[in-house]
Amino acid sequence: KQEVTQIPAALSVPEGENLVLNCSFTDSAIYNLQWFRQDPGKGLTSLLLIQSSQREQTSGRLNASLDKSSGRSTLYIAASQPGDSATYLCAVRPNAGNNRKLIWGLGTSLAVNP
Amino acid sequence: DAGVIQSPRHEVTEMGQEVTLRCKPISGHNSLFWYRQTMMRGLELLIYFNNNVPIDDSGMPEDRFSAKMPNASFSTLKIQPSEPRDSAVYFCASSFGEIDEQYFGPGTRLTVT
Hints:
Strand content of chain A: over 45%
Distance between the termini of chain A: 41 Å
Number of helices of chain B: 0
Number of strands of chain B: 11
Helix content of chain A: under 10%
Oligomer: heterodimer
Shape of chain B: globular
Distance between the termini of chain B: 36 Å
Largest sheet of chain A: 6 strands, mixed
Structural class of chain A: mainly beta
């Protein structure tokens, strides 16, 4: 059974720091992995999606990497800003085909302090 | 497009009452997902529709929960009878075709007293 774990559960950093959020999964046979952002009281926003054949994806100050063999993904945030404060969740899609069910981590709550 | 629309945004009800949550997906999207989020258990998929057909309802906790998608632009999640442990934020999300990026609505915060 696929399980997704995110460590740490919470992180507080000063503005400007580069930081890494971690996501691990127990079954390396995945179809893709996504990183989402959730602001308090709001829905989730998709940040980056990495297909199983890819090693990384980049969007602005965000870079997500994927190492299937070790069951790990990292989200790198460069030059963090107070506006980056949110909860970041990763989700794994185990299968190709018709079932698009995602397996979710519990998230890392990030606070970037001015 | 206005994005995924959910109503109501907040619902407070008494135990035993019927609750109906509504979702309008993004126009043209053909997959729709209902999630429940709590502090203890995080985000859980309840049910997922593709082209209005339920594909995976293994996350529906029990018979008190039911979901319908009568057409491509509307879905409901019903809880009858509601219980205090159903208190959570319920999200609806939609996606298009083979693209896995899901677009989430703002959620409905349900409180059952």
